[in-house]
Amino acid sequence: MRNFSVALAALREQKSRALLSALGIAVAAVAIILLVSIALGVRQDIKGQVEDLGVSTLVVLPGKVDFGTFNPNIGGQSYLKEEQAIAVRQVAGVVRSCPMTFVGGGIRANKKDANPFIVATTSNWFMMRPMQMRSGDVFRDPDTKERVAVIGSIASDQLFGDNVDPVGKMLNVNGHEYKILGVTFDKKTEGSLFSMGSLQNVVYIPFHAQKAITPELQVDRIMIQSASDADPKVLIPALTKTFKQFLDEKQFSVLTQEDLLNLVFKVMSILQWLLLGLTSIALYVGGIGIMTVMLMSVNERSKEIGIRKTVGATRKDIFQQFMVEAVALAILGGLAGLIFSSIVAYLLTIFTPIKPLITLGVVALCFGTCLVVGLTFGLIPAVRASRKDPVDAMRNE
């Protein structure tokens, strides 16, 4: 306890140097907290998007998904067909299914442009994922070729304004006119980082209407709904067997909601470790700063070390004193970084769609790394100070 109080007193006497030493650690702490908390916020947001599909929904992707690797074809050429979506309805435990195609392009109405996701699907999708409507209704005929559209409230507000009901108005989708049937209510419009590019911001058009325009229309996903009393995982072998009648096993993957989350979390974990690797450079620089300042302090405080040893301080006492100083500097930097990061995270939450998630784990990671840096880079100065001969220390001073 005595060594602890002596160390803090020494830091108070050298306030300017202590603050400069802690600054490097503070910068590294800010990098760690913000990057990790933003990654956690994004992960939470994506999790909400996937869970919004419902636990009874299975997704068929074009390409083989191995959780140890990633198949780039998942976003490319697809061999999925509407006939396959129809065939899987014969599997016991399947309630309904629908093809889904990402049309691409943009929409225009009221002399304004918008760029939501344009999805061509059948009315089965609205039965699989019931939507709250702000106005109007969805299309009900799964085979309709009528050019009608259901738009999200985000696109509606962009094109027509907040207080205008666009139901019955015409919408230009990639040069073709569609009549607006309904507007969905997007509950996460303001709160989601992905609200501008996900299921929160979509224009739905009938699959067969788009197929009439593009005869060789590619099916990008097949969505399958299982019965409420059927475990989606149990259905995978039977669904896989059905798809193998049409495709090679490398041309498709049947995933549950849990599988989708695992795939996303795996990618997010890799990115998170990469971010931590980058921030470790800042930690290393901050640690070098502490070590440099502490080594200078050892040389400048030779007289103090000599006097303490003369009056009975042991090598252990001197070692502990300088280690406490190094750790205190690192913790001080971590605390400053945490406070600054909390302010930045608060401002990001208010003024941007980014929602950083500062958890107890993030705080523990911050202070844990700061503690390790303090112990690691304070070791050499502490050892050098403890080994000083009291007589030589007094003479050098």
List keywords for this structure.
about 400 residues; alpha+beta; 2 domains; twelve-stranded mixed sheet; 13 helices; about 55% helix; elongated
Chart the SSEs and their pairings.
Blueprint: H1 2-13, H2 15-51, E1 57-61, H3 82-87, E2 94-102, E3 107-109, E4 112-114, E5 117-121, H4 124-128, E6 133-136, E7 148-152, H5 153-160, E8 170-173, E9 176-184, E10 202-206, H6 207-213, E11 221-226, H7 232-243, E12 253-255, H8 257-300, H9 302-310, H10 315-351, H11 360-377, H12 379-386, H13 390-396
Helix pairs in contact: 1-10, 2-8, 2-10, 2-11, 8-10, 8-11, 8-12, 9-13, 10-11, 10-12
Helical stretch tally = 13
Main beta sheet: 12 strands, mixed
Number of domains: 2
Structural class determined from secondary elements: alpha+beta
Low confidence ranges: 193-198
Q: What order do the helices and strands follow?
A: HHEHEEEEHEEHEEEHEHEHHHHHH
Rounded radius of gyration (Å): 31 Å
How far apart are the termini?
27 Å
Number of strands: 12
Relative strand content: 15-25%
- Taken from the alpha-carbon principal axes, the silhouette is elongated
| Average pLDDT | 80
Helix percent reads 40-55%
